[in-house]
Amino acid sequence: MFEHVTQLLVVWCPDWPVVAASTVVGLPLDTPAAVVAANRVICVNAGARAEGVRRGMRRRESQGRCPDLVVFPDDLDRDAGQFEPVAAAVEELAVGVEVVRPGVVAVPARGPVGYFGSVAAAAERLIDQVAARTGAECQVGVADGLFAATLAAHRGKLVPPGGSPEFLAPLAIGELDGRPELVDLLRRLGIRTLGDFAALSPGDVTSRFGADAGLAHRLARGLEERPPARRRPPVDLSVTHHPDPPIDRVDAAAFVARELAERLHAGLAAHGLACTRLRIHASTANGETHDRGWRCAEPLTPSGIADRVRWQLDGWLRGAGRPSAGVTLLRLDPEELVDGRALQLGLWQGGHDERAERAGRAMVHVQGLLGPDAVLTPILSGGRGPADQVHLVPWGDERAPPAPPDRPWPGRLPAPSPAVVPATPLPVTVVDEAGVEVGVTGRFRLTGAPVSVTFDGRPRVVVGWSGPWAADERWWDPASARRRARLQVLLAEQSEEDSQDALLLVREDKKWSVEGIYR
């Protein structure tokens, strides 16, 4: 059966994470630069590519190829905030703008094409508009469906209606970005292009490779990832909030965004739905409004909804066209919904716990009184020291550790962990039998056997010790390198008031301190 696919016009700003980071620090855009996440390059600009730096490289290798490379951390909030002026510039000429991700916006092609007379004229006008309003470089592509239109923008192609399958056919199978396991499997089976993949039977693809491969197969055929039949959202699924006092700061916006996101997500879950396209509307007491559509390939989670609310308000409240008054109305409208059964475990696992719900409301109330950072949740993280292995996140934020705890960590302390980890390492003195301070050599050897530790203002006798454990971290990066040695000591009881404590000591910058206490 014939399936109609809307022709979209996509505006793409190349290397946007690097452009946004360079703009924030005032770095010239022709300076070789890259954005790194998890010690791997995820985006580079033209200057870095000319020096041989590529996506996927390790940071050390990229800096070896280009010693002058400027490295930025990955920051989605920064990218989204800097992209707001670009989206606003496109919105001046086209109706129905949707932000796909920072660096990419999509709009139905019918409106601008009809107004400017042709696809080529509309594309040229949008490129000039973005350059004049923001100074950013962009490329425009037109094709049927978001996937094909985005790839067309990468190549500056204007694909005629119905021509997406022919445009996609010769492209490499690696264009199915975000599905590395499927791409690797298809390559091993000899399927090298999107056309080869599209030629397979949809039923055979789904039965052999699974449902996600079936969605990817639709993209390769020039269709939307999901069939066009969408469940229309009931009117009561939109959520509205009237802030009092009005919102005029980004931190206040972030707090409200989390509460709204939870409400919307709970309403959708009650109907077995999930949102893939969201419209956020904000208005002020002076009648100023800001309306933006957000499209996401995967169903939005509460944290994903909250992020988009925060990004939009951040760009509006801090941008050149900032409102003259605080925001008095926020409304979230789910415009495109899919069946939420795929999220069933995330939505309903564990059942309803009234006590947990009351505790959650109490935490939110405390945050409302004292601020979002007043209530923190500990999560396990990766690291070598005990303080590194516990990460605190504000209540309601995504519980994502900064480092994966299940990876190998050479030099990590053996179990058990200390019962007490001071928020700030406590100073301590360690001496040998001659009363000389014990040090650590360049080969991580003790200069003497510890016999006494002065801790908490009192000398304590050492009856046993173990170590040292070496931790020479990030030695390839002088700016963030750390060289430490850890030592465990067992202290003798001196009186009935003293317990037989054991201490975890760490030596750094030629000073000893207490990093943990065993009890």
Describe the structure.
- The protein is an alpha+beta fold and 519 residues long.
- The chain has helices spanning 16-25, 46-50, 59-65, 76-91, 110-116, 119-134, 146-155, 164-168, 180-188, 194-198, 202-209, 211-220, 250-270, 302-318, 344-348, 354-370; strands at residues 7-12, 33-37, 40-44, 70-73, 98-101, 104-108, 139-144, 239-241, 273-284, 289-295, 327-339, 376-380, 390-394, 426-427, 429-431, 452-455, 458-473, 482-491, 502-508, 511-518.
- The longest helix has 21 residues, at 250-270.
Topology:
Layout: E1 7-12, H1 16-25, E2 33-37, E3 40-44, H2 46-50, H3 59-65, E4 70-73, H4 76-91, E5 98-101, E6 104-108, H5 110-116, H6 119-134, E7 139-144, H7 146-155, H8 164-168, H9 180-188, H10 194-198, H11 202-209, H12 211-220, E8 239-241, H13 250-270, E9 273-284, E10 289-295, H14 302-318, E11 327-339, H15 344-348, H16 354-370, E12 376-380, E13 390-394, E14 426-427, E15 429-431, E16 452-455, E17 458-473, E18 482-491, E19 502-508, E20 511-518
Parallel strand pairs: 2-4, 5-10
Antiparallel strand pairs: 1-6, 1-7, 2-3, 5-6, 8-11, 9-10, 9-11, 12-13, 14-20, 15-16, 16-17, 17-18, 18-19, 19-20
**Quick one: biggest sheet?**
8 strands, mixed
Q: What is the β-strand count?
A: 20
As for the number of domains, it is: 4
**Average pLDDT rating:** 82
Q: What name does CATH use for the topology of the largest domain?
A: Alpha-Beta Plaits
